[in-house]
Structure formats: structure tokens, C-alpha cells
Design brief:
Layout lengths: L22 H13 L8 H6 L3 H6 L8 H17 L12
């Protein structure tokens, strides 16, 4: 259960999940999954072991998914951002 939605806590503050990751981070994940460099299903430990700390904190949605599903989610998020209809679309690259 997401503690941020527990009674008395209110909605989460600020962006959460994949929305906090810049396009470049999502593209890197997609590329690694596509090339087989990041075997699926994966979890937080696998991302941390590769030095992908920010991704490890934000990509809970992808944990435990097969490669096909991870590719579908990442492709959909990137496409939505590029269409300009996603929250944070056209976000500048991370420093």
C-alpha cells in the first residue's frame, strides 16, 4: 500500500514515479532493456547495482515486469511527453 495515500496523510507532494525522471534517463532504461543489458524482470537492487540510483527510487512501476511490458510503458511515457500532453512534457534535461 502506498503510505502517501493512507488516511490522514493526503495526496503525495510533487511529482512521483516516472514523472521525476528526465527523458534521457527513460531512454537509457529503454535502451538497456532492449539490448538485454538490464535483464527483466528487475527490481530496485538491479538498478542500484548499475548506479541508477534516481531510477531505482522512481521506477517502482517497472519492477517485476517482463521486458515487453517495460518497453511498452517506457515507450508510452516518452511518446506522451513528446506529444506535449503529459505533465512535465518537454522538461529540460537533467543537469
Amino acid at each position: 500500500m502506498n503510505d502517501s495515500l493512507s488516511p490522514g496523510r493526503g495526496p503525495p507532494r510533487g511529482p512521483t514515479g516516472l514523472t521525476i525522471l528526465p527523458d534521457e534517463a527513460l531512454e537509457r532504461l529503454l535502451r538497456e532493456v532492449h539490448r538485454g543489458g538490464l535483464p527483466c524482470p528487475f527490481g530496485r537492487a538491479q538498478l542500484l547495482a548499475r548506479g541508477l540510483n534516481r531510477e531505482a527510487e522512481a521506477a517502482d512501476l517497472l519492477f517485476g515486469l517482463e521486458a515487453r511490458a517495460v518497453r511498452a510503458v517506457l515507450t508510452a511515457v516518452l511518446a506522451e511527453r513528446r506529444s506535449g500532453s503529459a505533465p512535465g512534457a518537454n522538461r529540460p534535461a537533467a543537469p
